[in-house]
UniProtKB/TrEMBL annotation:
NCBIfam families: PRK11657.1 (NF008657)
Gene: dsbG
Gene Ontology MF: a single term: oxidoreductase activity
Localization terms from the record: Periplasm
Protein name (database record): Thiol:disulfide interchange protein
Organism of derivation: Aquamicrobium segne
Length: 260
């Protein structure tokens, strides 16, 4: 892209050349810089000025759920995306980025997941809640369901399956069969136990309500940066969100679900 350097290394090198004795930054003045419009057109969201030392005009930004710092050069025609460090090698913008970008995005994401069309799997009062974007035809979702049994059956974890239909032509119809079942949790379990035999029978007709719900779930999945299933979201001990694409295994599974 013309006049745009997307490199963390250059951003770090630039910070080493700045006045590290300067106690603080000032609000960014290049709020109308053309290069910011270029970044927005490429999918970045600019959340506002970022207060950093060194005399740089900085902005808090994001792509999906990833927080980014954008540094605009004095002529407004160039920008760097990366990590600004002090003379000791410590990042100086992380705390502000978390406050301005990550915390609001993660809270909004969690609220959206709670309001989504999900199917519970496990005790509602479980110690940990894990949301999972699940396709009824997904073999990896089936692996995850099986791997999670010890945590679910011990009451440690409740999986909340946000049903989507993205893998095969009948995925949405199978998801609707689960959502519209008299007991959705039992219907989900039937699908997973009998997955190798084809799982649950797809509905011939999806209700308008399920269709709206499934479309909204797919949109949410994409907004949160997942391009396939399973996609998992859980809260860490410090309240921040963990995003996991694919099936976690071994230590990664315990890190996500917690100890048994």
């Amino acid at each position: 892209m013309k006049k745009l350097l997307l490199t963390a290394a250059l951003a770090s090198a630039l910070s080493a050349c700045s006045d590290s004795d300067e106690p603080g930054g000032s609000p960014a003045s290049n709020t109308d810089a053309p290069v910011l419009d270029t970044l927005k057109a490429q999918g970045l969201t600019i959340h506002g000025p970022l207060d950093v030392p060194g005399g740089l005009d900085a902005f808090a930004a994001s792509v999906g759920t990833q927080a980014l710092a954008v540094y605009v050069m004095p002529d407004s025609g160039y920008a760097l995306i990366g990590t600004l460090i002090d003379e000791a090698g410590n990042p100086v913008a992380d705390e502000e980025l978390r406050r301005i970008v990550s915390e609001p995005i993660e809270q909004g994401a969690w609220d959206s997941l709670e309001a989504a069309g999900w199917v519970g799997d496990g005790r509602p009062d479980a110690e940990r809640i894990v949301y999972v974007f699940t396709d009824a035809n997904c073999p990896f979702c089936n692996q995850l369901w099986t791997s999670a049994r010890p945590w679910v059956e011990a009451g440690r974890v409740q999986l909340r399956h946000v049903m989507v239909g993205v893998i095969r032509a009948d995925s949405a119809s199978k998801a609707a069969a689960i959502l519209e079942a008299e007991d959705p949790e039992a219907a989900l379990a039937f699908n997973e136990v009998h997955h190798s035999e084809g799982g649950i029978a797809p509905l011939e007709t999806i209700s308008d309500e399920s269709n709206v719900q499934l479309n909204a779930n797919v949109e949410l999945m994409r907004q949160l940066g997942f391009s396939g299933t399973p996609g998992l979201i859980a809260k860490s001990d410090d309240g921040s969100l963990r995003f996991q694409s694919g099936v976690p295994r071994g230590a990664a599974l315990e890190e996500l679900f917690g100890p048994l």
